[in-house]
């Protein structure tokens, strides 16, 4: 016999949401503490690595460039140094970086809490797909974060770190500015890669259809190029590198939306 869900009032829903937020915050805090303690590894090994000319991405770009008989993408140095101009700047950067790392590591658990909150309004069959939803969403998010770290961040650091209006200007970058660039690149890329999941739920809600996505594909292309221009340096190569996976995600979203529509039509026929 199917379990009968107890009807909840608005205040009950608010209370339930509060506890989901509390547990999610506790998970972020837990992983944030770990990141705070591992300061040396987080900053020296991970965050400051894209400033090194030997970073993996730069080596790959250089090898690709040499394959085509040129060294246009090879770099020898990224000529800027870090500096701290405020008394509490380094501590503040440390705190916010720990929170960001905590959020990234706790993302699957946060998704689980989100799923538990919305699951009462779903069909029993949809509730059983919780593990798939969490796995796929987390996978896409982590892939996006890696894309932001190995593609968006190096492109931005290399371009902005080498850009100069005059030799009279010294390249001394505030550590907060650098970390902010890395943080925004990672989180923006992570959320952008959630596009198929977003399209799935929008289709379930009846807000979009595969035909709608196909009809406005050209408009989406323009938006993707604008988005790529926002999160990357203003050079064509960087924008194309970032735009390609986003366009692939858009095409994947059309396919997912098509599957959702077919399932909804099948369910409607069974219930008729």
TrEMBL record:
GO molecular function, one term: proton motive force dependent protein transmembrane transporter activity
CC terms in the record's Gene Ontology section: TAT protein transport complex
Coiled-coil features, chain-numbered ranges: none
InterPro entries reported in the protein's UniProt record: TatC
Protein keywords: Cell membrane, Membrane, Protein transport, Translocation, Transmembrane, Transmembrane helix, Transport
Taxonomy, superkingdom: Bacteria
Main localisation: membrane
Pfam families in the record: TatC (PF00902)
Subcellular location: Cell membrane; Membrane
Stretches that traverse the bilayer: 27-49, 93-112, 133-152, 186-207, 219-234
A Gene Ontology BP annotation from the UniProt entry: protein transport by the Tat complex
Claim: Protein transport is one of the keywords in the record: yes
Biological role: Part of the twin-arginine translocation (Tat) system that transports large folded proteins containing a characteristic twin-arginine motif in their signal peptide across membranes.
Subunit and interaction comment: Forms a complex with TatA.
Family from the record: Belongs to the TatC family.
HAMAP family: TatC
UniProt name for this protein: Sec-independent protein translocase protein TatC
Species for this entry: Gramella jeungdoensis
Lineage: Bacteria, Pseudomonadati, Bacteroidota, Flavobacteriia, Flavobacteriales
């Amino acid at each position: 016999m199917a379990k009968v869900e107890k009807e909840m009032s608005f205040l009950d829903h608010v209370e339930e949401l509060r506890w989901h937020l509390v547990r999610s915050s506790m998970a972020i805090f837990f992983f944030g503490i770990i990141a705070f303690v591992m300061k040396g590894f987080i900053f020296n090994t991970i965050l400051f690595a894209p400033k090194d000319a030997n970073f993996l991405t730069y080596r790959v770009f250089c090898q690709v460039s040499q394959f085509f008989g040129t060294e246009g993408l090879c770099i020898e140095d990224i000529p800027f140094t870090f500096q701290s101009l405020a008394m509490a700047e380094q501590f503040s950067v440390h705190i916010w970086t720990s929170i960001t790392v905590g959020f990234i590591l706790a993302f699957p658990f946060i998704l689980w809490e989100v799923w538990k909150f919305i699951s009462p309004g779903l069909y029993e069959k949809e509730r059983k797909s919780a593990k798939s939803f969490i796995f796929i969403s987390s996978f896409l998010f982590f892939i996006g974060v890696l894309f932001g770290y190995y593609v968006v961040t190096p492109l931005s650091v290399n371009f902005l770190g080498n850009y100069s209006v005059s030799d009279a200007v010294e390249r001394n970058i505030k550590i907060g500015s650098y970390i902010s660039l890395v943080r925004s690149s990672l989180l923006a890329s992570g959320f952008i890669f959630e596009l198929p999941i977003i399209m799935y739920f929008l289709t379930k809600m009846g807000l979009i259809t595969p035909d709608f996505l196909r009809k406005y594909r050209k408009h989406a292309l323009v938006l993707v190029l604008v988005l790529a221009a926002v999160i990357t340096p203003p050079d064509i190569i960087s924008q194309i590198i970032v735009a390609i996976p986003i366009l692939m995600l858009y095409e994947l979203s059309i396919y997912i939306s098509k599957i959702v529509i077919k399932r909804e039509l099948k369910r409607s026929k069974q219930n008729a």
